[in-house]
């Protein structure tokens, strides 16, 4: 199925107008970046690039798309002829999935003719803004949870396809499993889940429900104990499953108090190894507040799939350089009022001292040529990799493999952050973004 | 493409366990409802049902789904055999799309065997929670905008498929157009859009950009005038397009001040009919604050697709009645702590006095039989319609026709609200929900 219509109409009207006046063919550099970190977060997490690559493979205009554009008078005949053959033939470089980003980080750089690159704007932003918002929130939850595993179970609080993307983004940022089956199939993420309250209510008694679940899923299953009275639920659970019961889940109540009571009750009943999972309206703050409670794992729903208060990142996609009428390169940027930005092609490096990040160094070039690592910080780690070269997608970033690699990369680069970056309170970015002149 | 994996794993583990103990075949009634209105909103707007019907058509387990379930040991062989033949054969009744809802409104009632109905939980919630959150925010914006048209242009701030659903939900709730081409094609929503800042930056001068746009899109186009200096931009726009220029768009700055300045400048230049569109970070409050400004139309992005602070509704899907071991009906509900709900099958009516809504009347039945309109309010309007009967989907609610009908329905029923419901500030629901005993 074509993904070319997952886009704003104005990308195509600009394309048509640029074909008419010849500017369509001007070599151009677009940059996807964010002017700020939403919500006073101390770092952002890039996610979505692997999905974008998969969607880019299907980005073409078929008969159905061309007919709609013609019948609705959206573009002229010249543009229809161009779109019929459209395939992205430019290059895309940028931050790896799982990488951290800061204000001004050149997260993606898309190069091609204007026509080549302009039509990818909406799709690239849709994917990166959503997935990065979820990954950023998820990473904070993962830091708050420490060694305790986190499961994503927010599918019901996100549109049905976003739910799959959100599960993937949360996994990249440190979650260990998801409830979403499509995310399991498509991206290789471990899936989890046993039963809802309806399971207990379906049965004539809670005991019947627990017996049937243990018969079907084994003693190691997790029983949901809060449909009626939690104390009675726990007692029934251990009576039915025995002291080797895998776990109990609590989905309501004042969790620090309830978790302590349930742990004491389980221990008293001899179910010393039975785990406690809590799942009621958790976010990074609630998880942090449970650090001292006897909880073994967390299930997070609404807050992770909605970015914990910030459901979209504030990334934009801007033309930063293009060829001029004289054939030379021109750095460009919107100058007006509150949305100014920095023109020019950029190369980015995480500057490290003793292995700790101290700056996001962005080397700005007036020209088109690639730029070297700035020499001031010999420990600098280059942040950009090539995703697409001359229209060819590097498959390393796609599918199950790309997703697992992104998760490993995230957990690795998070270790570089200074300690203050791990706090949950609102603050400035953990490291400053420093723009320097490129060394040609 | 199958939609059956857009679901939580536990729906299928419950199904498998219920097949094993025979409860899978118990006639059951699930209800989709919300315990509260998010964010102190005074009413909610139902959206998504038409999309859910379309997704339900593709809800089946094919070879690929069955293989994943088997290979990952998620369900046993009996369940695989059941799922292979699965088609929803029950019934779905509920609120029309575009209808208003309040705490406890029985928005959808899904009836069938437990196995039939339990597996639809995640998908139904994903669609309704997302689409209704967007529609509820959009309706408030539509009220704030009054007669001025509103365009949805938030695709870049929502995941790529949610963007299409959000455009549809906003249209149902009173928006008049979208930037999203797929929403235009799939749901018949008018699309709009002309050019971005990159269009101006691509050219050697703003004047070149405006000339090329007018040549391609005609004098009636809308020119984006804030890439450099707004005053210069407006002057150039009118010089290039003439006083019959269709419109100018302003995407930054202090809008009440800028809009007044631009209107004065346009009038002075003789462009008396040139419209002003504003598009910078608008939400319902910013729109309301512009009511006295000379603005002709609004474009809304981030805030509408993210539900203006509440990106998901708080709808849940609960078993409310089922057959017991003795063949009789049993009303059921979770009793524990903070998430209690009302069991039993329900019929809902908007109680009206002199055409103004005074209550959401919900008649609760202990049994399975349909219930009559409560007699107290002869002006009551029944709120539930049949979407699916014995597995057959009523096509009236799908596609372009269903979407247009939902929009008309919404605008009609919004007229029934008491005046206080139209205020934007946080408050209680505009009308109380009154539970009454059903008249058999």
Automatic annotation (TrEMBL), chains A, B:
InterPro entries the UniProt entry points to: Aldolase_TIM, NAPRTase_N, Nic_PRibTrfase-Fam, Nic_PRibTrfase_pncB, Nicotinate_pribotase-like_C
Keyword Transferase part of the UniProt annotation: yes
Top-rank EC class of the record's enzyme: ligase
Post-translational modification: Transiently phosphorylated on a His residue during the reaction cycle. Phosphorylation strongly increases the affinity for substrates and increases the rate of nicotinate D-ribonucleotide production. Dephosphorylation regenerates the low-affinity form of the enzyme, leading to product release.
Keyword vocabulary terms for this entry: Glycosyltransferase, Ligase, Phosphoprotein, Pyridine nucleotide biosynthesis, Transferase
Domain Nicotinate phosphoribosyltransferase N-terminal: 6-129
GO molecular function, one term: nicotinate phosphoribosyltransferase activity
Family per similarity comment: Belongs to the NAPRTase family.
Protein's UniProt name: Nicotinate phosphoribosyltransferase
Organism: Microbacterium istanbulense
Organism classification: Bacteria, Bacillati, Actinomycetota, Actinomycetes, Micrococcales
